[in-house]
């Protein structure tokens, strides 16, 4: 009898092991198909802001590809770090798998972002970073390199005696600081031409007004460098309206149809465009891969291009500059 | 059981394991075969279906695009050949009023086209002198010179006789508008000079194409894309990623492939490509589906099969266990009973019989066999008991007739001598002796009774031998109640007198002493007669020796009955040497183990079982040695 029951034990063990194997396979395949929940908090959601529209489109594409449940929320303006911090707190309470943030402030966002990490949530920064290296991943334009690119281009239009003004967007944001650093590097020995730095607060109107004041202050201004889209467009509009197109050169960052029009009108001689779609897509896609345990680059660059009136309609730039939808202006 | 045939089944410890293992192997093999065939079948049909479906979709997309294009061609034919266009654009001799009429007619025509066709975003005819009509006349066309810088314009001029279809591009013909379109264009020829002096173009809204492709998704992850004849993307759902350098598409592989469908990639990234080319545009519509999505159901099916297999395996295991137990349990019971029967416990050896299969029949046979053997054993036992009783009866009648004659002679002699007192005592002793021996029903009597019997016997012998015999009988009080087989001591005493004392010249002494020794009662019968040599002592229990002797009851007989009754460890032990006398020690248990059968365990039957016929019985007749 003992031998018989021994045999039976072996059978039961075999059956139990095979059942366990099947369960494991089931759970493994379930894990592969896991739907991750991510919250994306860009600086702003504004359908007139081509840059962020594009970032969000890219993020949505990444979410679709990875079957990610993506929630997107943003504060009322790019400067409003308090609102954004509240949104981040709210997102932490939801306990998603990851929070993807484009931090509004280089310094003021840090504390709340630490809480994301403390809650055990994966933190990905896109577009901008903060003053401490706390993120799991980041996807951003190498703003120093982009600034250098623009600075080098701008230097070609300048002499040692030229007068240049910088219009930055938000004081204390990492993108503004990096771009300024890059621009100064790119200008090289002509960095001394920068006579004034003003802050538009990422508002086109404010940039417009400030540029007008600036032009009155420096009647012999040669160039205005706008460090983001509203700043550049505001400045260019001021130049256009003051009929100073032939006198003052404008260069800037980011692309929008307004910028393209102004470039076609001869006001912008060059703009450095980022790849916002890539940024949004990579932000979600890299996070997704990271959550799945795949190896990804910690700080990923999304790239930038210099666009001039000459190469505006080249096939590659067309595709980067003009969104495929929603462009019936 | 001990003899085994050599075959597969015998390699297993038990038949039931063998049955279970074979059934399990069979089930697993069947399930695996079934799963392999059906999985193969389902996965190949899934791919076939996907291919057919993808073919349909790409053909449909192509058809739709072709219909858009042919529609645009029709419009372009009508417009470019209309006299209004020639007049408005090229006829310098017309007056302003005519031109205005022509302009109005063209605008109305264009407006009608734009109103009826949502897919058309721009329609324009313009001359190199910047005369022309755009859409409903409200949009500002950029200068002909600016226009001529664009790629699609140049392509049109390089194809003066026909219609040119552009790739997807940003149309910047109207200032301030940057729409993605596909442009169908043709040069306008001034018929008076037969030279190209203008262009007609009609823009197909790009979103028409993208919606068309988006609405024709294949599966969850599958998609449709369009490339032109040189492999440039016209539309791709992930074109942003492709332009951004994050993705690549197998455009060349697909374009150069001879077959209309192909598999590209490996593992989870394996994709099924189906293409269909349009004759109108020269574009190729490609449908992409992920085989992982197709085989996803395979995995589920496989898991289902495995689950099913485990379920069936479990069922098969229990079924096999049940069946094998149905076969082996009765055999096992039979085996157990056989072991009981080997021990001689026939009552316990009965096998429960259920059903009427081969094993049940075997069990029934076994049952009737054991029952028969049990009967035989009972019969045998009864016979043995009968035999013992008759043996005892014979013993009573075995009192040596010489003893009786001699005693009677002595009584006569004493009566003649007038020894009345002695005659009375002796006759009384004789009478007592016989009375005591009469009861043959009880095989056992109390030791005190047996001792009394010996006293009577010795008294008679004392009268016979007078001064030649002295005897003493002692019995400790604690052994008086011990039960002893009848007629044990008297033959020993008789033996001692006849062989020991009688042959001694001088006076002989005989003592009988009964006492307790632990769990035993011992009766020592000692004489100081002639004694025995070693050889005689050695053969004292052999009954042929006894047969030769003159006295009736052989020591062998006594010993045999003691062994029979109490076991081998009890009985008579002799010690003797010539001239020194003889000591016989009878050992019996204080309390006899009562097994109710009158037969001690491990009795003489041991080893002779099961069949003991009459010829196998010990041949020593109970009536032996009694004859003078």
Describe the fold and architecture.
The complex is a heterodimer of chains A (329) and B (628). With 329 residues, chain A is α/β, with parallel strands linked by helices. Helices cover 47% and strands 17% of the residues of chain A. Chain A has two domains: 35-139 and 276-302, Rossmann fold, CATH 3.40.50.2300; 143-274, 3-Layer(aba) Sandwich (Rossmann fold), CATH 3.40.50.2300. Chain A has a six-stranded parallel β-sheet with strand order 2-1-3-4-5-11, sandwiched between helices. A six-stranded mixed β-sheet of chain A has the order 7-6-8-9-10-12, sandwiched between helices. Among the domains of chain B are: 81-209, Beta-Lactamase, CATH 3.30.450.20; 210-293, PAS domain (Beta-Lactamase, 2-Layer Sandwich); 406-606, Heat Shock Protein 90 (2-Layer Sandwich), CATH 3.30.565. Chain B has helices at residues 15-81, 83-90, 96-116, 144-148, 151-157, 206-215, 239-243, 251-256, 291-343, 358-396, 401-416, 420-438, 447-465, 489-501, 534-538, 543-548, 555-566; strands spanning 120-127, 132-134, 164-171, 179-190, 195-205, 223-227, 233-235, 261-264, 271-277, 284-290, 444-446, 469-475, 483-485, 508-517, 520-527, 571-577, 581-589. In chain B, β16 and β17 (581-589) form a beta hairpin. In chain B, α1 (15-81) packs antiparallel against α9. Chain A binds chain B through residues 3-4, 7-8, 11, 15, 18-19, 22, 25-26, 29, 57-58, 61, 65, 257, 260-261, 264, 275, 277-278, 281-282, 303, 313, 315-316, 318-322, 324-325, 327-329, and chain B through 13-14, 16-17, 20, 24, 150-151, 169-170, 172, 176-180, 206-207, 210, 221, 238-241, 243-246, 299, 303, 306-307, 310, 313-314, 317, 321.
